[in-house]
Amino acid sequence: MKQRDLGRVYVTGSDGFIGSHLVETLVGLGVQVTALCQYNSNGSYGWLNHYAAECPSNLKLILGDIRDQFFMDATIQEHNTVFHLAALIAIPFSYVAPKSYIDTNISGTTNVALACLKHKVERLIHTSTSEVYGTALFVPITEAHPLQGQSPYSASKIGADMMIDSFFRSFELPAVTLRPFNTYGPRQSLRAVIPTIIAQAVAGETEIRLGSLDPTRDFNFVSDTVNAFLAVALAQDESILGQVYNAGSGREVSIRDVTLLIGRLLGREFTFNQESIRFRPKESEVERLLADASKLRQVTSWSPKVTLEEGIVKVADWMKKSEWLNQSTFYHR
Q1: What is the pTM of this model?
Q2: What are the domain boundaries of the chain?
Q3: Class of domain 9-183+220-250+291-305
């Protein structure tokens, strides 16, 4: 299958979980990458800090903020492909500070789109989330499923998705939206369910602290999500522009069952401690997610390669070696 040339690539959210894996993959492919990391007073590049001392010749690390239109305008110019991953993603905090999610996820995305339009970027890959679907009204979930803002976070991502769609329709911005389902893997925040379960297990705990055990999710290892990003970026057929694509495994697992699976894989027996602080508001909980990724598979031949069992073992192995886990106390909260 013929592929387009990525040219010079710009990645927002490079310091984060998925973004850092994407940047590393692009650098390994020899692509010239500008990696935008969230500005901070410590000069940290997050999960890309290991590049700071000895940066590859095809990588440029920059600090900035997508909420600043002038910064985005100045730095996106002269790039051919933009991967937009920067976002506020913590669902619990979105209940406390919803305006910040509007500022970053909607206004920030608008700034990215404006800069891409002005500088004639050849392709913008915008990151959505399966949370925009809310609790499944039918399964498996296709891209035609209604959007339901069941949290301020998901509402802000729906807003961002609609801004990208409007720029495609109004200004012919060459954008495509990727909608990953429940990505997990090394470096993911302990706010996420698989890392928090494994972290508690690695710490020697047998009573696992969780919220609701009944919701189901479609879990996908981070390398598979990265490959989905690359698939839509490299696709030569421009009919993908203006489209939304799900990236998911098509395997549905409840929080209870994934906890028991982790226990079996790690040789541990768990009991459950359901803490009220970990529950979402009743009407806000997304009870069921299961992806239909056939649309993406048909246009790019993408499919997930890492099974849930294989991915869990990879995360556990990484956590056992990680100094970051020893410094974290999230799973005690």
Answers
A1: 0.95
A2: 9-183+220-250+291-305
A3: alpha beta
